[in-house]
Design a protein that fits this description.
By secondary structure, this protein is an all-beta fold. It has a domain at 13-54. Helix content is 0%, strand content 27%. It contains no helices and 4 strands. It has strands at residues 13-14, 27-30, 36-42, 50-54. Strands 1-4-3-2 form a 4-stranded antiparallel sheet, with no helix packed on it. A hairpin with a 7-residue loop joins strand 3 (36-42) and strand 4. The protein is elongated and about 35 Å long. The chain starts with 12 loop residues before the first strand and ends in a 12-residue tail after the last strand. 0% of the residues are buried.
Length: 66
């Protein structure tokens, strides 16, 4: 997998290495208050790119542990 960019103007892209072992249709990250933080969506199969997007209008940074 790749990394999500920390700059707002950069395209945030994650890359799958082996699609036969892992297939993601959608991933939604929520906060403890049930607010959506990040939507992660791949392009059509065969997936070549996964895009991570924030909720519209939300420009605050995302903190995560890898």
């Amino acid at each position: 997998m790749g990394i999500v960019s920390s700059k707002p103007d950069d395209g945030a892209a994650l890359y799958l290495r082996d699609q036969n072992r892992l297939n993601i249709s959608s991933l939604v990250v929520t906060s403890p208050r049930k607010r959506t933080s990040v939507n992660v969506v791949p392009n059509a199969f065969p997936t070549t790119k996964i895009t991570a997007q924030r909720t519209l209008g939300d420009t605050s940074p995302i903190e995560f542990v890898q």
